[in-house]
Amino acid sequence: MSSPNVTLEVANMVLAQNSFQIAESYIQQLHDIFDAELRSVDFANEGPRVAAEVNAWVRGKTRGKIDGILPEGQPLDM
Q1: What are the extents of the domains in the chain?
Q2: d(CA 77, CA 41)
Q3: Do 38 and 27 meet the contact criterion of CB atoms below 8 Å apart?
C-alpha cells in the first residue's frame, strides 16, 4: 500500500532453535501464506549474534526506522 505520505510494508520471519526439526509442510506454509522466511539459529550458544542479526534484519526491512527489537550483547532465553 502506498500513498504520497504513507508506505506500508509487511515482513515476517520465524526463528527456530537449530536442534528442532521443523516439518517441511510448515516451512512451505510460512512461505506461501505469510511470505515468511524460517531461520534456524542457536539461541543458547549464539544469542548475542542472533540478536544482532535479527536487529540488522529489522533495520533493513524498516529502512532504518526501527533500529532493533532485541537487546544486543545478552543471551536470549527460550
Answers
A1: 13-61
A2: 13
A3: yes
Strand partners, 38: 14
| DSSP states of 35-72 | --EEEEE-HHHHHHHHHHHHHHHHHHHTTTSS--SS-T
pLDDT in tens for each of the 78 residues of the chain?
Answer: 556 788 888 999 999 999 999 999 999 999 999 999 999 999 889 999 999 999 999 999 999 999 999 887 766 665
**Residue recorded with cell 532465553:** 77
Q: Which residues pair with 41 in a beta bridge?
A: 17
